[in-house]
Write a structure and sequence with these properties.
The protein has three helices and five strands; from the N terminus they run H-H-H-E-E-E-E-E. Strands 1-2-3-5-4 form a five-stranded mixed β-barrel. Strand 4 (about 110-125) and strand 5 form a beta hairpin. By secondary structure, the chain is α+β, with helices and mostly antiparallel strands. The radius of gyration is 20 Å and the shape is globular. It starts with a helix and ends in a 23-residue tail after the last strand.
Length: about 160
């Protein structure tokens, strides 16, 4: 019985540390290309597979695909975009089919492995901004982080756990 419990615990620990993109796709990723290089000349990297992530700005549904505009963020543990005021720019994820904008909504974090397919110039405020377009191979929508309350997260006490 103890050996089974330990085995299950090890499986949970190993899967908790696994990247969210499959190993097969991660092998295709060209890690020598920085996001700054991609922004500078998206057309030069057509056909290259990249791993990117960030915060969703907007999701647009078209007849045969969905475009997700993303504020790029550096990737941390397991490929999760890190927060803060760090970003090198924006990019667009192109995904076949319908992705619901109520789920893929503003502020959600995503990680994508995909192929550079070109660029799209769109207005951003009063300037024309060049967005690299990444065609999705694999896309991971990170679970929403719970908003922490002002109450302490650890409760220590003796007796019945009733709060009034």
């Amino acid at each position: 019985m103890g050996l089974i419990s330990i085995s299950i615990l090890i499986i949970f620990l190993l899967t908790g540390c696994a990247p969210v993109i499959s190993k097969g796709v991660l092998k295709e990723v060209d890690r020598s290309i920085s996001f700054e290089q991609l922004l500078e000349e998206p057309e030069a990297y057509k056909g290259k597979t990249l791993l990117l992530g960030g915060d969703i700005i907007e999701t647009q549904n078209l007849p045969a695909k969905t475009l997700i505009i993303v504020l790029q963020r550096p990737l941390g543990h397991r490929g999760r975009p890190v927060g803060g005021d760090v970003s090198k720019g924006r990019f667009i994820i192109s995904a076949a089919g319908f992705l619901d904008p109520a789920i893929y909504r503003h502020g959600r974090k995503v990680t994508v492995a995909g192929v550079v397919v070109g660029k799209k110039v769109r207005p951003l405020g009063e300037v024309e901004y060049t967005y690299p377009i990444i065609e999705k191979k694999e896309l991971y929508l990170w679970p929403e982080e719970e908003v922490s309350s002002a109450e302490p997260q650890v409760h220590i006490g003796v007796g019945v756990g009733v709060v009034f």
